[in-house]
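User: Last request for today: this protein with pyridoxal-5'-phosphate, please.
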Amino acid sequence: MIKPINATMPGKSGTDAYISPMLDIDGVSVHSLAERFGTPLFVVSEKQLRRNIRMAKRAFSTRLPKVVFAWSYKTNYLDAVCRAFHQEGSWAEVVSGFEYDKALSNGVPGDHIVFNGPSKNREDLEKALKNSSLIHIDNLDELYMLVELAGELQCRPQVAVRVNLNAGTLPVWDRFGFNLENGQALDAVSKIMSFGCMDLRGLHCHIGTFILSSKAYGIAAQKLADFACDIRRLFGVAVEYIDMGGGFASKNTLKASYLVGADICPSMDDYAEEIADAFHKAPFGKGEFPALLLETGRALVDDAGFLIASVLTNKRSAQGGRYTVMDAGVNLLFTSFWYNHKISPAQLYSQHFENTTLYGPLCMNIDVVREQVSLPLLNKGDLLVVHNVGAYNMTQWMQFITLRPNIVMIEENGGTKLIREAEKFDDVTRLERL
Ligand SMILES: Cc1ncc(COP(=O)(O)O)c(C=O)c1O
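Assistant: Here's the final one, the structure of the complex with pyridoxal-5'-phosphate:
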């Protein structure tokens, strides 16, 4: 395929500095949102969320007979976001007892909850067993605990083995699950078979996150498919599904990247083509073609999230460079540690641009949202929109120095709803004991 690269070519003075102002989000004025809900303010576009999951489903289900998306709760577990994905048919993928309870409270049936994670405790596992959830085993202690619980609760755990493998990307994530290449994964499967008290329903792997190579998924899918065929041959069990985890890149720009993220990020079709191709080439038995499960997180939600912030002040560095301070910092934008988030002013401006260091409001030197960004002149009170913040910010944010802000959703029908209230003094102090 030939793909257009939309980034402007650098000239002798660097890349084109022009950026367009962002006056509205899905037709709702940024200034009116800030007036109504204050700043900083997270805004989630329901339209974009749904567009993303529908496109992703189309890319995979046109290539494979059975595809299930399980929404990765840790990526964004706001109920409004999770429920939109569940309404689109997504199951839930959780990694803790807390996330498990959230999925249940969002009405997800137990057998549509995929329970991953390296730290499931006895209580979590009991709950998952009682609800017939799919438990993805991370380590042998968990496997033995399941054997014990199967006896105590008189049930058959429905399990998958989490596998780690070398898909050609670095670093190889070998911390979670059982290694395929050195035989740990086969050892785990044979233990499951010899205990005989569980049903091995699937295989799982999550090769990493923000994987810019779609080819890596082809390699991982082929290795898992071959492993599934080995299990069938050795133990007579055909796994029902292969879960390829998450990790597809979003359109954000990594700090180390030369080209903008939107230009180098593979499309859903690229990822789907690689995985489907590997599945179709595998020698699965007749009627035994496994379902594909996906736990895609950031690629489905990142570009549906925006953060509106107000300029607090402009100042000059000791060398004369421009510093702009806004009211949202790394406390709300955890991802600004590794992304150069796109920033748009939310009002019209003159053509004078200047390289600026964009700071957050914290009394902490590392509170830098962009080390260098070309911005027009901005006055105190002007608004900025930070793009692609839908993944891992509304879950990894910190209550540090200031309180967490409001989150609104712009609904598909154009309405605006507050989906999480800003924290108040009491929300934080309520838990303290003197
Ligand atoms: C097991 C598992 N599945 C899915 C995801 C979602 O990953 P991503 O947001 O990169 O798609 C993660 C995130 O790290 C994960 O650990």
